[in-house]
Amino acid sequence: MTVTSSSSASLRLPASASSSRGAPGKQPELLRPDGSPVRVLVVDDESSLADLLSLALRYEGWDIRSEGDGAGALRCARSWRPDAVLLDVMLPDMDGLTVLGRLRRELPDVPVLFLTAKDAVEDRIAGLTAGGDDYVTKPFSLEEVVARLRGLLRRAGAAAARSESRLAVGDLVLDEDSHEVWRDGQEIHLTATEFELLRYLMRNPRRVLSKTQILDRVWSYDFGGQANVVELYISYLRRKIDAGRAPMIHTRRGAGYLIKPGG
Amino acid sequence: MTVTSSSSASLRLPASASSSRGAPGKQPELLRPDGSPVRVLVVDDESSLADLLSLALRYEGWDIRSEGDGAGALRCARSWRPDAVLLDVMLPDMDGLTVLGRLRRELPDVPVLFLTAKDAVEDRIAGLTAGGDDYVTKPFSLEEVVARLRGLLRRAGAAAARSESRLAVGDLVLDEDSHEVWRDGQEIHLTATEFELLRYLMRNPRRVLSKTQILDRVWSYDFGGQANVVELYISYLRRKIDAGRAPMIHTRRGAGYLIKPGG
DNA sequence: GGGAATTCTCAGGAGATTCACAGAAAGGCG
DNA sequence: CGCCTTTCTGTGAATCTCCTGAGAATTCCC
User: Fold this and answer.
1) I want to staple A230 with a disulfide (CB 3.0 to 4.6 A). Which of A162, A211, B103, B210 is the partner?
2) Which residues 175 to 214 of B reach strand C, CB within 7 A?
3) A49 Cβ partners below 8 Å, 6+ apart?
């Protein structure tokens, strides 16, 4: 097994390092050395989920391919050389670990994000996250998958990209590694859901996000509750983020919410 | 401890000595004289273990090759010239001692970390470690293997790198060689597991580590228990580390734990 | 062999978090 | 200005996460 260290796995920031604008759309944040978008291979036999994921990841500006079984995944890995793999541990033709093992032999340095059922965590497989890989349990939110994938890509990439774990909008700063948030230098404690909502807003500054959009992105895909939770959580966020200060979270009546630097 | 004052095996710290961020990833902490990453040869016939080890070591930023038997190991040693060898003493084709002997003829100054079953320790292995080598018994934790390997590489390398055996986060200091820990100058006694957990946290300061991550890294690969032990040991650590003082170990509900200087 | 130290399971309880509901407040429009 | 719609937020209940004491099992050490 001839393992060259990092060959294809070096990633870099785009030339126009306007990195604060993590705006999904057509501006990928991470690029391959040749300037082409990052490649992500999605492996899931449930086609509806695979479609949902592909769509969301494409929206990040990444190049996506999707496979429904282990054999296809390996074939694709071999020929397409993705920069990251999103792998459901339950596949029809082979055990997730088997796929992982062979994948590793093919792409030693490519990070893998596992999708696993909630209860399967208990009979977890030792070392699932050992090599810097990560996992997400179903049902997940798209924001979570995207965030973890970005984390993996960031850490697998060039050292220069390492500092990029922070989002900033005005004097509001969010650190994805430590899960810390500051406004004007002062630390603010957020709950898990508040944190994800804020991260989504901050990754789309100055852009109106509808309640539906937010619900689809930040809440799990199987959430069955009222769309009103978004209002509730916006309210929570305002209390913590905007309290006293110039408001950064704005309501666009009939359209949605947006975040922008005070003023 | 007969530390051969290395010849070819001189290692050095990376130019950018941002060593406080022992953050696993692509930033190797130890480099060869030519700036390329350290090379480690993994020799184990159990492929799943070899894969797990390769994964974890590669994540340290090292260049890894893996062989399944003594013959292959010797071949690789000869042509690839690794900086360290991770050697299972139970190999299909030849006795671990034999492999070691020939390895030594090939690479006189390269340190070897033995993997051995628990009960086989006594007799012969102990003697082997006299030359600066070390050993780890199965089942092991990844943190332990990585730590020992780092220790070997460090000691085999330049003296300048010697000071690197200490981790510090705020006024908390941990010595990897002596296994001593101080908070604000005062020594704190930790059990083996507590020590490994703290080391893992301190090697990833200001980063949220999930319970699964911790379990995968700090506990043996064959541990089958509840993820709840992590909570328990965090609790123990807090009692010893944070007692009275400003807490350094923080809980991120729903995400994991992180350590950071008081504040 | 016996005592001490260590590791780990189990379960109760404290507290944090999520969410539905409903009335209050605010915005838009004729 | 009055009415209707949309958004905001207080309340409280259900749930979930995490902490920790007690004690069993195991290992270590003398």
Assistant:
1) A211
2) 189, 191-194
3) A88, A221
Tens of pLDDT, residues A168-220: 999 999 999 999 999 999 999 999 999 999 999 999 999 999 999 999 999 99
Q: What is the pTM of this model?
A: 0.89
Residue B110: HSE in the Cβ half-sphere, 13 Å Cα cutoff? 25
How confident is the model over A27-83, as pLDDT tens digits? Answer: 446 777 677 789 999 999 999 999 999 999 999 999 999 999 999 999 999 999 999
| Residue B118: pLDDT band with limits 50, 70, 90 | confident
B255 at A interface, C-beta within 8 A: yes
What residues contact residue A168 under an 8 Å CB cut-off, 6+ apart? A20, A174, A202
Those residues with Cβ within 8 angstroms of residue A82's Cβ, 6 or more apart along the chain or in another chain: A39, A40, A41, A65, A76, A107, A110
Tokens of A136: 């997400």
Beta strands in A162-240 (DSSP E): 166-169, 172-175, 180-183, 186-188
Q: How far is B158 from chain A (nearest CA, A)?
A: 23
Beta bridge partners of B73: none
Would you tell me which residues 164-203 of chain A have a C-beta closer than 8 angstroms to some C-beta of chain B?
A: 175, 177-179, 191-192
Q: How do residues A215-258 score in pLDDT, each as one tens digit? A: 999 999 999 999 999 999 999 999 999 998 999 999 999 999 99
